[in-house]
Amino acid sequence: MSCRRGNLSASALGLEPRKLLSGLVVILASHPGALWACAACAGQSDSAMAKGMNWGIFSLLGVVAVVLGGVTSFFVFLGKKSAAVSAASVAAAKVESTDRL
């Protein structure tokens, strides 16, 4: 197997994505301590750190809800405005057509 200096790829080195993923899974499965939760999550649920983290989560959730509410209300406003303009143009067309008779 000859590899040129500028043509290095995973397949040229004999590394296939499936083998890399399998190896990563095996390594993580053999060392589960690296996958444990942090002390704030796995510790006491009534500690000051856990309460502070819960307040942080609820605060961020509130911000997301306010932003999504703003986006939703903007699109509702656009829909109502579009319906009003459409109704006005239809009414104007009806008045114009009755004036011709």
Walk me through this protein's architecture.
The protein is mainly α. The protein has two domains: 1-36, no CATH class; 38-100. It is 70% helix and 0% strand. The protein has three helices and no strands. The protein has helices at 17-30, 39-42, 48-100. It is elongated and about 85 Å long. The termini are far apart. The relative contact order is 0.04.
Task: Give structural attributes.
single chain, 101 residues, mainly alpha, 2 domains, 3 helices, elongated
Task: Summarize the entry for a quick read.
It contains three helices and no strands.
Largest sheet: none
| Total tally of structural domains | 2
- Would you report the number of β strands? 0
Low-confidence residue ranges:
none
Furnish the topology, listing elements before pairings.
Blueprint: H1 17-30, H2 39-42, H3 48-100
